[in-house]
Every structure is written in structure tokens, then in C-alpha cells.
Design goal:
By secondary structure, the protein is an alpha/beta fold. It contains 28 helices and 27 strands. The chain has a 7-stranded mixed sheet, with helices on both faces. Strand 1 and strand 2 form a beta hairpin. The longest helix is centred in the middle third of the chain and has 32 residues. The protein is elongated and about 135 Å long. The C terminus is likely disordered.
Length: 857
Amino acid sequence: MDNSPIMSQYRRIKSAHRDDLLFFQLGDFYELFYEDAERAAGMLDLTLTSRGHARDGRIPMCGIPKHAAESYLARLLRQGQSVAICDQLEEPQTGKGPVAREVTRVLTPGTLVEDVFIEQGNESGLLAISPGSKGYGISYLSLASGDFQLGEIEDAGELAAEVARFNPSEVLVPQGYEFKSPFTINECLRELDQLDFDAHAAERQLCAHFSVDSLAGFGCEDLPLGISAAGAVLRYAERKVGQNAAHVNGLRISHRSDRVHLDPVTRRALEIDLRPDGSAAPTLFSIMNATCTAMGARRLRQWLRAPSRVIEEVLDRQAAVSEILHNHLDGNANRLLKEFGDTERIISRLALRSATPKDLAKLRHSLSMLPEVRRILAETTSARLSHITARCPDFEREVALLRSALAEDPPALLRDGGYIAQGYDAELDRLRGVQQNAQGFLQQLEADERLRTGNPSLKLGYNRVHGYYIEVSRAGNPHVPENYVPRQTLKNAQRYTTPELKQFESEALSSESRALALEASLYQGLIDKLQPSLKELKEAASAIAELDALQSLAERARRYGFSAPAFVRERGIAYKGGWHPVVAEHGNTPFIRNGLKLDDETSLFIVTGPNMGGKSTYMRQTALITLLAHAGSWVPAEEATIGPVDAIFTRIGASDDLTQGRSTFMTEMSETANLLHNASPQSLVLIDEIGRGTSTYDGLALAFAIARHLASKCQSLCLFATHYFELTALAESPGIENVHLAATEHQKEVVFLYEVEPGPASRSYGVEVAKRAGVPEAVLKDARGELERLEARMADSGTQDTDLFGNDESRAAIDETTQRLLDTLSALNADTMSPREAHALLYEFIAAARSAKLGNS
């Protein structure tokens, strides 16, 4: 084993960071050793080399240039890896052994505050999950924004929805705990010691962090699982950053009742901010995002990902959007907000003492713009905008301090120096003067000495071994002043120094390092002076982020012609002239607008029509109108009225899940089961093509039962798209109606009209759609012939078409036996029947069913 001092130092530091890749600085490189080197080489495609000797051979190692570390670190973080950065704290000196080194930063995917590692508008967050006998405690923390919240939930399905809502970069769980299906964590998972989730220790830590005697002031004292999760997530974050997260100065409770519930399936189907292929556009967020700052984009994303059920909050946002529009403030706000940096993250880095000089320069400029923000909002009357104004004071002390202490255009890195302003510190100015005036001093000294000695060949010079010197030629004046001290003898000259030159040399050679050290000390002092203002600075940054999100909603409402929705207490969703904002913006043809009215009188629409006819778009636009309304936005409709909505559920599209061993149909049924268990009368439910993954009769029976359950038991507001014609008979039941997406045929070509009309559709146009998809003509011809034979056989046998679109004769031929059985069933009272009566009736049904089967064969 390599027992060199450097490797001993490495092993000591690595022992404290067993779970992290250790980037160990050796000169201008970061080196990795042993297992770290083998892992990093594979993840970064580096060449694996070796050094020294271990018991089983040479020690594996690989390295990267220090100046290029950021790109490598970003790649590791994207792969879920945590990295400990071990830096040299001093310059190497001969004979002193290994230089001092220590870990200066631990980077993990969920604790990032550096812009270089996080895409603009995205969040790096931690989510801790504390399982218990009656549910789960959860806590979310974003170090970049200081957002800290906790909550408790009852089941795994809701836990999956919360993970999807927060979309954390890291998930923390107790060691050894396994989450059961249907919940699977796909995010970067970290297992922590069970003691990290101790509720009593967590409460003590949280009280100490917030300097309070109890958590009663946060309203969470009766949420032990949530407290244990909050303690774990805060402890993990502070352990990784190596210090107290002072800017995390609040803790709020996350209530499901405060937001519209969106499960992971629904989020994927609605493409809120991510498409199924992983791309970020086109999505609802990409369409609605006209923000000017990264923090405004993050706030807008939060509103769309967690639409609010607190109608007062929604109406506050809506009123602010309306006032911005009516007073044409969005243009002024847009112009002004472009001057702001990502102040939220700068303040987080300031709190963690990792802010760069460029960060503070951006903060200085942003704070200086706040008076202008208050000026443009001075005449506003909405409560939301007034609250934003109140949170944006002048910060005169902070601006004055930053102007006096910080250079006008400071460098990005501390190591470069030159970031403290001239005139801020007299000693720093003197040291800089020594560096700046060195050449002039030497030239003047040389001229003075030539004059004093009468030797015009005298010259001043410098070399790395002997330093500064005065060189006198032997052929010149052999007489030198008494204060000349010999330094070096050459063949044709003698080199001297003087007390004055030695003093200059001492100052000149040390002034640069002394200036850098003093400047670094002054910079840390500047950061110290800004710490008392962190809370107010964070509030101002949050206010600017909110203003940016509101002006974005206003700008989009103006651009796209949205209207302000009305909220009512009565159950229902109604709109006229609505459209899908993403499809309308990126589609190739003009969008046909449609309306909708779901309420107590009609709560479920059976939606029929051909493939590609617009059924799915119609359903999704209804969901997006509802979601945008609850985010506080105006909506893509000529007018809209929204009643109470507690959740949006979708069952649209399906694919198999091989990792969980589930077929397409099993996945479809699992998603359906979730919404049937959780949908309420105030839920919006969208179902598309249920039951198509199994046999015709099985699928038809399931679709029929699911639709009837949604209408009669869940009583949800529902759009139910199907290709089973039999389901259109449900319109005879109370609260259910048929609508269809219109299409017609012109010169043997299907023409989609995309208009929603009452009643069921009359044809499927399946072969015509296949033709448009490019299916070979020979296959189409064969399909048409087979379709004609099937329809003829059905007409001859009197069998009803089990697909949605049969011919008119098959739709008219209602099975009298089936109808009679249904009538008998509907008249039964199961509570008053005796077992004998039920048994006799069952035999009667079996006999009737066999008779009907023989008649159809």
C-alpha cells in the first residue's frame, strides 16, 4: 500500500466522505483514487491510470484539470453522483510535507445553489420521506431558494403524487426501507441512518435552527412524521454544505387541500412542463413562460405544477394579472425585470458564503432597481401588487456598502483579485500602489543612482535567485557608495543591493500575495456585513419573482387573447370558445374552438368520433383551462366558469411497464383503479379508450361498468372518450349525454371538422385514417373488403356490432332478451330477496343467456 504522506492524507479525508467521489487537488489537477477513480473513469469516459502500490497491485487513479472541473462535475451530478471537493489551502513549500487540504464543498444533485450546475428556471431540491404505521411524513427543501415545507399523507398513491409535484433532485429515506408498489422512486435515492429520522432529535434541531422554544408557531407540532422528515432533510443539507443554512428562515405546512391534486399519470398526460420524450417544449409551461428572470420562471412553474384550491389566493393573482393588463404595466415590468439577476440564488449563495464578486455586483444592481419597481406599482390597487411593493424597500445601507466596497466590474473569481473597490481600504490601496508603481520606482531609482555615482552604465535588474540588484561594470567606476552591499560577482561586473532596494524588494515580492490575502479578508467582512439583511433580501427577491410570474401571465393573456375565468360555488365546469393553447400555437392548421358544460344536470359526456378527430385534444384542453384558472391565470376560452375542483385525473394513452412486470392493459387498469378509488364529485376525470387492451367483450364490459361507476358512485365531472358504440346507450341514464367530434367524407377522403356536436358519431373512418397514415393501398383494399363481409354477416345474423361504429341495421337491432334482463335487474331489491328467490332468479338468467347465445349462433 502507498504510505506516502499525500496518500495518508487522502485516506484520512476520504474516510469522512465514503459516499462521495473525492476530488483531491494535486497542483493544477483534481485526482481520484481507488474505487472513486474506477467509478469516475466510467462515468466521465476518462483514462484510468495508476500510481504507487497497493496490496493487490498499483493504485487506480484518474484526474481532470482543475480549470475545467465544472463541466465534469455537472456530468456527474446529472448522473445522480455526489462529489466532495478537496482543495489545497496553501502553496507547496519545500521541506514542509503535504500542503494543507480540506473539503471545501460537497456537491449533491439536491443541494446545488451554483448557476453553472442548474438550468435556468429549474430547481435543485431535496425531499425526505419518513414512513410510519399510519402514513408518511414528507419534507421538501430547496437550498437555492430557501423554500422549506413539511406535511403528512396517508397512502402511497398520494406520496407518488407529491414526489411528482416536487420533482426533487434527491430523495432521502431511512436505511433499509422498501417502498411498495404502486409507488416507485425513480429519482436519486439516498439512504440515511435511521437516527437521522428521529422525531425528537429533529424537533430539537429545528427549534435550534429557527431559535425558538417550540414548533407551535409553525403549526406543525402535531405532525411527528413530518417533523422527522424535516429534521432529516435539514441535517443532510447542512452536513453537505458544511454550515448553517441561515437563509432557510421559515417552515410551512404543505396541505393537499390547498391545491388541485394531480397524480403522476395526469402530469405526464397534460405535459405541464415535460413531454413524454423528456423534452421541455412544447409544453404548457413553455407556452406560458414569458418571464424575464430565472426566479420568475421557477415561480411560474410552481404555480402550474401545483394549481391552488384556495380561491382567495387564485383571485388575488387573477386581479393582479387583470390590473397589469388594464394599466399596460406588463411592458414596463418586462423592461425593468430584465435588469434583475437571479437574486434568489445569489442570496442563497450569500447565506452559504459562496457568493462570487460577480454575484454581489448583480445583487447591487438589482437592489438599486427596487425604487423603480415601487414607482411603476405605486398606483396599483390589487392586494397582490400592493404586497409586492411593501416587500421591496430601498436597501439604502446595503446598496451604499456594495458601491463603496465592490469594484464596478469585478472579476468572476476570488483568486483573480481586483474585486474590492479603490478607496475602500487604505492598506489595500498602498499594497496595490506598490505593485502598480514598481516599474516607475525602479526606473527613477536607476536614474538617481547613475547621477549619484556618476556611472552612466549602472543599471538595475532582477532575477529569481538573487532578486533585485544594482549592476556596476568593472570597466566603469570602480568606486561605489558605502551603502552598496555586494550580492553577486560576475566576470565583468559586480552586483549590489542597498537597504532601500531590499525594502522595496520585500514589499514588491510580498505585496501581491498580501494584497490578495487582505482582499479576501475584506470580502469575507463584506459578506458578514450583509448577513443581517438576509431575511429582508430574501423577501424582496421572492416579491420580484412573483411580479415576474404575474407579468408573464398578463403578457400571455394579451398575446393569446385569453379571458378571465369566473369562479362559482356551484359544482361544474363550463366554457365557450375554448382551445388547447399548446396545439393552437404549434399546430399546422387553424384551431377550431369548442365549448363545454359539465354540472349537476350533466356530469358525464360520452365522447365519440374517429381517431385523429380531436377527442383527446378536447379533453386535454378542458383540463388545461381548469388548471390555468386555478394557477391564477386567464384561460384560453372566450369565457369560462369554474366551480370547486379538488383533483384532475386522466387515463389517456398507455404503454407497458416492463420494469414492474405490467402489460399495457395492466398499466391501464392500474391507472383506472387509482382514479376510481380517489375521484370525488369535485374531480375532473378524463378517460380515453378504456378497455381496448383486451378482448372485445371484456373491454366493453369494463368500459361500461367504469363509466357507470364514475357517473353514479364517484359522480365526478367526466369526459369519457370511447370507440364502443354500446356505451352511447348510457345517455339514457340521468346525468350522462353523448357528444361527438364531427367528421365527413369528401371524394373518399376523411375530413376532420374538429367541432363538438351533440349525440353519438355515425362512422369511425378507421380505414380512411389508416390511408392518411400511409398504409399501403393493397392493405386498405383488403381491409375494405373484409369490413364489407363483416358488416354483411352481422346484418344477416342480427348480431350487434361490438365496436362503436356499426351500420344502421346493427345499431337498430336491440337484443330483446338483454333488454328484458336489464329491466328485471333494475327492478330488483337485493336487500329484501331471500336466498331461495335469488337462486331461482339466477337460474332464470342463465337459461335466458343460453337461449340468446343459441339464437345468435
